[in-house]
Amino acid sequence: MSEYDVVVIGGGAAGLSAALVLSRAGRKVMVVDSGAPRNAPAAHMHGFLSRDGMPPREFLALGREEVRGYGGEVLDGVVLDLVPDGTSGFWVLLSGQGSVGGRRISARRVLVATGLRDELPDVEGLAELWAKDVLHCPYCHGYEVRDRPLGVLGNSPDSVRYVQLIRQWAKDVVLFIPPGLLTVQQRMELTARAIGIVEGTVRRLVTQDGHLSGVEMADGALVPRGALFVPPRFVPNNTLLSGLGCEMDDAGWVVLDGTGQASVRGVYVAGNLANPRAQVITAASEGSVAAAAINADLVEEDIRESVRSFNLGY
Fold first, then answer.
1. pLDDT value of position 311
2. Which site among 79, 111, 184, 282 is 20 to 30 Å from 222 CA-CA?
3. CB-CB contact of 164 with 179 (8 Å)
4. Which of 281, 282, 207, 270 is CA-nearest to residue 237?
5. 31 — alpha (psi -120 to 50), left (phi > 0) or beta?
6. Does the domain formed by 2-117+233-312 have CATH 3.50.50.60?
């Protein structure tokens, strides 16, 4: 059984940033990553100072290299379960797949950064264009599709605020929304900013040469569009946390204190697993903050153990 100060579960921006800080602090750190980042379909990431436009996998590869450069370890694998070890630490149990199958790792603290998954509307052709011409975050990709004919696939009155935001990147914007959801005030606000309104059911997305060319409605009408923004449903990958009994809010998001620690002592969380709106740069920052809190927590434990050993004459 391997023993570590900290096991980081999830090797995205949050997890690698935390591992970097902890490794530089002289902690023995292991990152366990499944190799399936949420932003894998995207060709480039944006809004990260000095890394704008970098392919996500290149960014993660550089992060792994930096962590390893300070003595941190990165393991390709899947964590099956977290089990309290009866003291203040945990056993990290890996799944039975691959060369590390069934391995058990001892960790004084764990940082869970497993992110979230996007549940997309069930519209023909949408998933195939996800992160290409079908997008979610305007701050991540709005500049790249600026001045195209844009659409927003809405499903609630809140979609009005979202489409008003998208309007900042283009003059030709259309909101696709089911009938009966818009108020008179919302219609006036949309009209005032020249945002088109198409009420009905979207049947499918139409492509040409592999790119979005239009949105086809259930009545057969075709609305030409160059890109479509779709707010997905965010679902946290919180199985490990719920298995430990960590407190969740009514929507299923983990409850944290000001340091990133969950209700189960010794368990910390960073990135999209707790903050669905965190961009890559935000997640990296949260990982760094959590790492500092973890190290401070370990220092307190080190002090207690040193005093105990001193009093016992060890």
1. 86
2. 184
3. no
4. 270
5. beta
6. yes
What are the CA-CA distances from residue 70 to residues 24, 28, 63, 67, 284 (Å)? Answer: 6, 10, 11, 6, 18
Burial code (b: 16+ CB inside 10 Å, e: under 16) for 67-91 equals beebebbbbebbbbebeeeeeebbb
Kindly state the tokens that stand for 261.
């620690």
In DSSP terms, 83 is beta-bridged to: 91
In the chain, domain spans: 2-117+233-312, 121-229
* pLDDT score for 167: 97
Spell out the CATH class of 121-229.
Answer: alpha beta
By the 8 A CB rule, do 2 and 12 touch?
no
Instruction: Give the pLDDT confidence score for residue 274 in this predicted structure.
Output: 96
Domains 2-117+233-312 and 121-229 agree in fold: yes
Pull the structure tokens for residue 87. 């003291």
User: What pLDDT was estimated at residue 312?
Assistant: 82
- What average pLDDT values come out for the chain (314 residues) when binned by 10 residues? 90 98 98 90 91 94 98 96 93 74 88 96 95 94 96 90 96 96 95 97 96 97 98 94 96 94 97 95 97 97 91 74
Cβ atoms 195, 164 nearer than 8 A = yes
Adjacent-strand bridge partners of 135: 229
Structure tokens at 3: 């023993």
- Rounded distance between C-alpha atoms, residue 19 and residue 72, angstroms: 7
